[in-house]
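Weekend entry, working from home. Most of the wet-lab plans are on hold until the incubator is repaired, so I used the time to fold the two sequences that have been sitting in the queue since the last round of cloning. Logging both here for the record. First:
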Amino acid sequence: MRIGLHVVNFGFPGGAGSIAPVLAQIGDAVEQAGIDNLSLMDHYLQIPAVSNDPYAPMLEGYTALGFLAAHTRTAELQLLVSGVTYRYPGLLAKIVSTLDVLSGGRAMLGIGAAWYEREHVAYGAPFPPLRERFELLEETLQIAHQMWEDDDGPFHGRHYQLTETICMPRPLQQPHPPIMIGGSGERKTLRLVAKYGNACNLFAGPWGGPDHTRAKLDVLAGHCRREGTDYDRIRKSVLWTGPLRPDAAGGLAFVEEMTRYAAVGIDEVHVMPPADDPVAFVTGLGQHVVPALASVRSSA
């Protein structure tokens, strides 16, 4: 099973001046630990699930990933996940292409329908109804695919009109950087995964156990059959929201729990470090979790 580190809290000891050096240390620790994927959230303001303080530090996601590209060598880099309302789709595809080129082919496009209304209102960004946001999401996925293919002509959608879809330089990954669509909605989100995506991301832990995850993956498999998509080619990941102590006992318990998720088809897990000492957390993962997790295989 692959493992990713998902950094959600930038309130490191030492204030704003500590953010860059700590992120650099996290990047180095991720490489030393053998972690596969390094991700950040994509928000304007810190979200209530992490902190009730809207003044808590929150970095712009792709700028921060560019910084991390220079402080990592092998880890895949992504936002988990970009809100479809935050950037025009052609620009988003260009940004991910840039990250892919500058990281040596390690970018992933993570995208979802967006949900945090407060930050949209605060920054003056449009926040249309959910149905429209899903329409925007599907058109954005169509545009990204076109930007990364040979067709550099126009795109005419209901919401977006592009006269040209030139994207140079092309991403290093071919045919394109992998696309993760976040969310677990059965009628829309998982259908979009089957039609346009290379990976899905579900919640695990208190928000959803293995049986819940199995049910979601069964729905995804059904969409894949209807779309003519190979279900096995889609990476199935979860964001772990439960406790995790990266010591010998805690690591063993976590790997045992992940074995249950692997049994229903999960092949990647993302975990979140605490803000007080994220580097020690990553080091502990490398010692007590990553080697054991590497032998866990998806069996569904």
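Second, folded right after the first finished:
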Amino acid sequence: MKEWSDLFTPRQLLALTTLVRLSRQAGEEIRKGDDAGLAEAVVALLSMCIGKHTDMSNGLCAWEPLAECPRHLFGRQAIGMVWDFGEGNLLSDSSGAWSIQPDRMAYSLSEIGNNWHTGQAQLASADSHPLPDATAQCFFSDPPYYDAVPYSDLSDFFYVWFKRTLAACRA
């Protein structure tokens, strides 16, 4: 596998590129109603659904026999070799189908609420961070994996799809 497209069957590539095209068309239609902000938000949310769908619809998904559905590709921080091939039906209502992605995204967004505050990223030691006590609702720390986790490879897997979908937001 030398290119990202090699991770997908021709059927999966056709389905994913069709989802990208339809997502971009949805943004264009909403933008015609003079609501560029809504169009950008809808396309961004659809791109996240497409990202999740690529994780569940590629040639390296194993089959989960207990749940009778494909396992997502990223069960760990690497793209592993699998001995079987599990594929969901894009048009069904089961795991691996497109129809469940927007529902899952809507559920996730409803659970995290909308009272977000502006965040910031800062390089600091986890044991002596610059924040005063009780000032942050959430504090993320990333252990020093160095080269053990190929972050750029993992992000590239999704980037190729986000780039195609989110191009509509810049229109």
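Plan for Monday: verify the second prediction. The radius of gyration is 19 Å.
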